[in-house]
Every structure is written in C-alpha cells, then in structure tokens.
C-alpha cells in the first residue's frame, strides 16, 4: 500500500469519527427543543463568589436582586479582596433584606483557592437548592432564576445552564472566545442528554447543597486551583440526577477577555483540570480533539499529495456539512448566529490554540483563579 493510499485511508477514518461526533451532537442537543419549566415556590440561594469585583458587583447585582422570584436569598462571598468589594457588598446588604455576606480572610493553607471561599458560602446558605453565578455575570432576564430553579425535581439535583459572552463588533478574538464557549456548551449539553454529563460552567449552574456535602464537597480536588465547577460536576453528575436548561431567558452574559494573552491564560487554567476527569470522559473528549486536529492536518497533506483530490474534497465537504448542521443549529439556539459563516476559520483557529495551550501546560502550570 502506497503512502498516499495509507494517508487517504487515515483521512477516511478521521472524517468518519468526526461525522459520528457531530451527528451525535446534532441529534442530542441541536435538534432538542428547550423546555420551559418555571418554578416559583422553591426556596433557593444564589451564591456569588467575588475577588476584587467591586465594579462588577455594582453593575450586575441589581439584576440578581430584581429577579421575579418570591423566595430567594443572595449569598455574597468576599474572597479576601484588596479593593472595595466588601464595602460594596455591605452597601447592597443594607438596602436588601435577602442578602447575606461571607467575608473570607486570607488563609495560608487555602490561599488563592476559590473552592475554600465557595465552601464557606455554601455552608452559610439557608436553602438546599443553590444557584451559582459570577460577579461579572449578568442574567439576560428577570426570569433567569425561575427558569434555572424550574429544572430541579425529586430526581434532578443538578442543573446545567449556558453562560454566554458579550458580542464585540469587528473583533476576531471575541468571535473565537464565543465560538469556544459555544463548542464547550454543545458538548456538555449533548453529553448530558446522552447520559454522560461531565462538566458545567460556574457562570450558570445549580445543584443541591445535600448533594455537595454527600460528595464531600471539593475535598477530592481542593489542591487543584481550578475546577470548582467542572471537576465537581464531573464527580457528582449522573444520567439520573442531571438536567439542562437552555431557554433564552435562562442565559447569563459575561464580559469576555479583551486580550489574547489574558484569554489564553484563562483557558490554560480551565484545560488543566481535564486530566482529572473520569476516564470515559477523558477518552471521549480526547478522541474528539485528536480527530479535530488530525482532520485539518490530513486534509492538507491529502490535498497536496493525492492525485484524486476530488475524493478528498468530497470527504472534506461532508465533514464541514455535518459540522455546519450541528454547530449552526446550536448557534441559532444559543443566540450566536453571527458565528455561523466563520465556523471553518474559527474551528481551525481554536484547534491550533488548544494545541498551544496543551503544550504550554506541559511546560508550566497556571496557579490561581484570580
């Protein structure tokens, strides 16, 4: 068998793997209608952990305070801030009876560890049903809380939501950030629907306090600086106890990083936790990424080497078509329609960036959550 033939056979195999993945995403999430379940009588606690977030708290807390929900408290956790975060929290508390404050002092054993601060906030909360978001996140509607809480039930004790980023016109970096966020959501929503939930994002997720403590909280990975969201969900989530919520009123909106270096470092921290996922999740996610990278590399070599480039083009277009169907429909559902035309370019950029993140993390490890 000639080298070009072996290359083409490998390309067929990679395209087949990619098509299977994207068809799975298509039929699991992209074609699934959003279920609107509103719950107004469940006592819930919103927990916001903030470190040097005075400005964001002033801008975003009113949207939490004004949620149309009759029975909720807001637990504000000040994680050893050096700015006016605590003063802003106290001002808001004086104006609202349903706000409580947890002031976390510096602790040598847990310095720079968001999980320690979150644990104190969870312990201080009055209710069993906990909703998590960040200080830089803004609910897109005053029905956010009702939508997320509505997916709790006797069986469902984890709710995974969508945390979007603001759009910045004419910014390729902004589109890359939102595309990566979209692809991550497409995967964790799809995996949850298929009975393999593996992560959530701390910008918009919920779980029961009872489940948290039955899992011994963050004890198994307290030494890892990141992972207060994905590692915890990876441990606790099952097919039976996990629900997803992607109604448009349930989204949160965050300010994206404005420089590539800042975003790159943020993603380094996020990616560094994946090595601690369950083996089945690491295998599935690893195969998807390797096949993504191999698709572009093999496509390039096949176009350059093979005489029958038309066959390569057919396979190339087949994979792009299935990707467009899956990611395109999902983009529309998650209000990211402006990304659709750029999917191949953003996909290639993201694959290259993730490769550099992986290599960089092998050389040095990111340290703190802020």
Automatic annotation (TrEMBL):
GO MF entry, a single one: glycosyltransferase activity
InterPro entries noted in UniProt: Glyco_trans_2-like, Nucleotide-diphossugar_trans
SUPFAM superfamilies on file: Nucleotide-diphospho-sugar transferases
Top-level lineage group: Bacteria
Domain (Glycosyltransferase 2-like): residue spans on this chain: 45-212
EC number: 2.4.-.-
Xref: Gene3D superfamilies: Spore Coat Polysaccharide Biosynthesis Protein SpsA, Chain A
Pfam families with a match to the protein in the record: Glycos_transf_2
Keyword terms of this UniProt record: Glycosyltransferase, Membrane, Transferase, Transmembrane, Transmembrane helix
Enzyme class: transferase
Transmembrane portions of the chain: 6-30, 284-306, 341-363
PANTHER family referenced in this protein's UniProt entry, alphabetically: POLY-BETA-1,6-N-ACETYL-D-GLUCOSAMINE SYNTHASE
Family: Belongs to the glycosyltransferase 2 family.
Protein name from the UniProt record: Glycosyltransferase
Organism per entry: Winogradskyella alexanderae
